[in-house]
Amino acid sequence: MSEPRRIAVLGLARSGRAAALLALARGLEVYASDAADTPTTRDAVDAIRAAGGRAQTGAHDIAAIAECELLVVSPGIPPTAPVLADERVARVPQVSELEFGSRWLRSRVVAVTGTNGKTTVTSLVAHLLGHAGVNTVAAGNIGLPLSEIARADEQPEVVVAEASSFQLAGIDRFDPEIGVLTNLAGDHLDRYPSVEAYYADKQKLFRNAHPDSRWILNADDPRALELAGDSRGLRWLFSLAGPLPDGQRGAWRADDELFARLDPTSDPVRLVRTRELGLIGPHNHANALAASLAALLIGVAPVFVREGLRTFAPLEHRMQPVIDAGGVLWVNDSKATNLDSTRVALRGLDRSVVLLLGGRHKGEPYTGLLDDARGRVRVVVAYGEAAPIIEADLGPHLPVVRVDGAFESVLDAATQAAQPGDVVLLSPACSSYDMFTDFEDRGRRFSELARRIAARGLEVANGA
Description:
Layout: E1 6-10, H1 14-25, E2 29-34, H2 39-50, E3 54-57, H3 62-66, E4 70-73, H4 82-85, H5 87-90, E5 94-96, H6 97-102, E6 108-113, H7 118-131, E7 136-140, H8 146-151, E8 158-162, H9 165-168, E9 178-181, H10 195-202, E10 214-218, H11 222-228, E11 234-239, E12 250-254, E13 257-261, E14 269-273, H12 282-298, H13 302-311, E15 320-325, E16 328-332, H14 339-347, E17 353-358, H15 370-373, E18 377-383, H16 387-394, E19 400-403, H17 407-417, E20 423-426, H18 439-461
Parallel strand pairs: 1-2, 1-4, 2-3, 4-5, 6-8, 6-9, 7-8, 9-10, 10-11, 11-12, 16-20, 17-18, 17-20, 18-19
Antiparallel strand pairs: 12-13, 13-14, 15-16
């Protein structure tokens, strides 16, 4: 089959814009559109037109899309979007921007997917490689489209790509040198009809597996091992449950130290003690193991992996300590947009918790938090659109304070509930779109208000 010459792009956020500009730079004809008419989409239209393409906002030209030989669909457009339901559009082969951008990459690719920990692992792999002097960028769902990298004349030696299920849903030839699967849990049930459908898109990471593929898998997650199935290639496992069996390639935690063994016949290499990591919680020990394996497989020497693990700082919005004031630690885990993320966050804390839970409901019952919340969570502060559901699910089992007002009121309620020695944890288990632009906006607002509350407390303590 010949390569397409006419490309349609749906969605003009960063990835759609990047895909359109890449296609134009490679001499292809482009039509791009977005149903939204915003400053961002209008800027994208101007850039695409300036580069020689056709583009519009506020509507889609079905006839123009139908004339194209390939359709690049941005991850924010759900499969149920009316434009995709049109039979003329449905006949055009569809791919994701991840797939399209990867076709033009000359870099080695490490792809990271899973339900939780993707961004931390992606960032940590890039940090470890960069610390060793490898020209590396973190890309994909983390914010930088592969198409933007592929358009540049000079490409990095390694691209570490965070791959979401939405992006993997549209792959065809995508074939990373190394693939990492962090874990699996239910998520995005507001978009997928079932957990199985969500997992099916994750499984496409292994679609183009071959004997030289290298896979890094979570030995502690039977679902992740099952998803990989009998895919071709070599496997390295990581585990928090102690040393792997003799002859097994991988990495593990034992006696509060991290170890790795790339070759089944070699002795394990000691990496770091867990207390040397700047990351909170056992789940981040697992993330460090996965990232270390990826770096070692790229060829980074263990000494640089050790140094990189010690110097990596927590990412914003992912179990990020904000401030410790009056004996209360405020922690921003705004990226926790599903129940499993919140469960993991709770397991990583050894102090009593005032849990901020809420936002836009994503389909799972909040009773799924009870096993990890009992004995850890002293008070739940429920807010946002999901507040009535949270109150109904958890109220019979835990103290729940429901706040129907602004986010400032949510933090005021948390302040009143918190006692010295507590953690006030924003780990919402919901999306942010009822009150905020995205989870980053939510996390920044939480951090800003937490610092303001802490400063106000200090003023009171000083008699101001």
